[in-house]
Each structure stands twice: as C-alpha cells, then as structure tokens.
C-alpha cells in the first residue's frame, strides 16, 4: 500500500513527466499477464471455494487455508481494474476507484496471505515436532477468533486509506498520492511501516519454522535409514519395484516445503525490490530517469510475482490437504487413490502431509 501504487495515466504520447513509465511493458505486457492470471485464478479459486465449502473446519490448517482462499478470491477480482488502468483503457472515474478501493484491497489480501502463511508455518512446525498432539473445540474456536481478528485489524488499518483518498484529481493525469489528503498521506506512511513489520516478522517466522522442520526431518530420516540398513527391497506382484513406506514418507515430507517455496517466490522478491524503488521515489537527487524507470519495472515485475500467489495457493491445498483432495476427487468422480504418486500416502484427512518420526503412519 504505497503512495505510488497507481501511477500517472497517459494518452498517446502526451505525458506530464519527462520520465515516462508508459511503455510497452506497462501498457501491454503486464495487462496481458494479469488477464491470463485473472482467467486461471477464477477457475482455480472457484474450484477451491467449491471444495472448501464442503470441508468442515476440524483443524487449524483447514481454518488457515479457508482464510487464504477468501483472500485469493478478493485479490483475483482486483485484476480487471489493474488491467484497465495500466493499459490506459480506464476512465478517470475508474482510475479513481483503483486508487481508493481496488489497489487497497489488493495489498490488504496480500498481507492477509502473508500472515496466514506465517501461521501455517507455525502449524506445520508444531505438527513436525509434536506429531501426535491433537486439537479440540476450544483450540479451533481460538483459531477462528484469531482469523477474525487478523481480518478486522487489517480492514481497520486500510479503511482510512480509502476514506482519506478523497481529493479531486488535479487533471486527467494523476497518481494516487494526488488524491490523498494531508492526513491520508500521513496515514499511508503509517500503513507502510506496519506492512513492513508484518512481512519481515513473518519472513523470520517462516525461516525459523522451516529450519526446525528441516532439522527434525533430517533426524527422522537418519533414524529411518539406520533401522532399514540391510533391509530388503519391496516388489510389487508384477515384479516391478514398489514404493516403500519410507519413500512415500519422503514424498510427503517434501510436499511440506511447498509453503516455503510459494512464500519465497511470491512475497520475498517484491519486498526486496520495494526498498530501492521507494528510495527512488523519495530521494530524487540520487536517481536519474533511467534508474527510476528500472526500479519501477523491477517493482512491477515482482508485484506480478506476488499476484501469482492467487494461483499457486491451490497447489498447497492439493498437495498438503488430503481432505481437499478427497473432496475434489469425489466431485470429479475420480478414484480416491488418484495422484498418490505425487502426494504420498497416509496423510491425515484434516491436517495434510506432515513429517513422520519412526514410523510410516501419517500424523
């Protein structure tokens, strides 16, 4: 949620700045990419909503995933406005809507996803270190309250950005900061700092959790390997080598790292690119036009990676949540064991694949 989220709009070759960002990358390439993302996102998130409405919230993991689904759906429906705005097809009124509402919702859902990725990482770490610890109605109720508190907090944080973006555009060429009141600019700076804390705090959380998960997986693998030294190879009736329980376990263990992969692909590049981009906007004497344009294009490219979160999250639902797979297969009239070669076997119906200790039984 930055002051310069939406940039000056242009018509033809007329520009109010000598350092124009209105090039083919901004007006053609990114609108096309976001259009594809919109179509794919509608299909994948539509399926995710359809499936999750049929799954009861019987674990922390399911609760967190349902919140991410809602955030992804909202983010997906902001893409058409960005496409129209960036391609210079939007009217002045629609561009004002992008500044006041659409871009705010986009960043709202991004940081909601970041927070729930942090919570999922904590949950996966807990399931790894204490695999036999169950849950109860009280714990589930607390997670639902926590989810509601996260949405409420970020909505309250972002609402003034909508309300205080109320000035009349000075001309047909404007950026979002031109619409903000003095109080709006000040509040926007506060929101930026809070969002930075949210990201960096969750980045540390994710790194710590997956470091602990990796250590526990290594210990588990070492124990399993020592127990199976000199063992026999399992063969299927057809004579082919069958996958052993340990192989299935390793497949499930690898799937756990999908959360880490999606987090780093989608959110880390943008927040690292955001630092020099913000400096280029606030320290004019340090950056010439070419450098400013480079950082702008870098920011837009990494912002697109953040948008990919809305279509990569379904991978997490499919690979880490057996309840999701089971319900999806039933809906598609597919046999229950479909895709087991990808997902592993024996994962818990509600919590997804989790690392195992000395046995091959899912936790």
From TrEMBL:
<keyword id="KW-0807">Transducer</keyword>
<feature type="transmembrane region" description="Helical">
    <location>
        <begin position="190"/>
        <end position="213"/>
    </location>
</feature>
<protein>
    <submittedName>
        <fullName>P2Y purinoceptor 12-like</fullName>
    </submittedName>
</protein>
<feature type="compositionally biased region" description="Polar residues">
    <location>
        <begin position="350"/>
        <end position="363"/>
    </location>
</feature>
<feature type="transmembrane region" description="Helical">
    <location>
        <begin position="145"/>
        <end position="164"/>
    </location>
</feature>
<keyword id="KW-0472">Membrane</keyword>
<dbReference type="Pfam" id="PF00001">
    <property type="entry name" value="7tm_1"/>
</dbReference>
<keyword id="KW-1133">Transmembrane helix</keyword>
<keyword id="KW-0297">G-protein coupled receptor</keyword>
<dbReference type="InterPro" id="IPR017452">
    <property type="entry name" value="GPCR_Rhodpsn_7TM"/>
</dbReference>
<feature type="transmembrane region" description="Helical">
    <location>
        <begin position="104"/>
        <end position="124"/>
    </location>
</feature>
<feature type="transmembrane region" description="Helical">
    <location>
        <begin position="252"/>
        <end position="272"/>
    </location>
</feature>
<feature type="transmembrane region" description="Helical">
    <location>
        <begin position="65"/>
        <end position="84"/>
    </location>
</feature>
<keyword id="KW-1003">Cell membrane</keyword>
<keyword id="KW-0675">Receptor</keyword>
<dbReference type="InterPro" id="IPR000276">
    <property type="entry name" value="GPCR_Rhodpsn"/>
</dbReference>
<feature type="region of interest" description="Disordered">
    <location>
        <begin position="344"/>
        <end position="363"/>
    </location>
</feature>
<dbReference type="GO" id="GO:0045028">
    <property type="term" value="F:G protein-coupled purinergic nucleotide receptor activity"/>
</dbReference>
<dbReference type="GO" id="GO:0005886">
    <property type="term" value="C:plasma membrane"/>
</dbReference>
<feature type="transmembrane region" description="Helical">
    <location>
        <begin position="32"/>
        <end position="53"/>
    </location>
</feature>
<feature type="domain" description="G-protein coupled receptors family 1 profile">
    <location>
        <begin position="44"/>
        <end position="317"/>
    </location>
</feature>
<keyword id="KW-0812">Transmembrane</keyword>
<keyword id="KW-0325">Glycoprotein</keyword>
<feature type="transmembrane region" description="Helical">
    <location>
        <begin position="301"/>
        <end position="320"/>
    </location>
</feature>
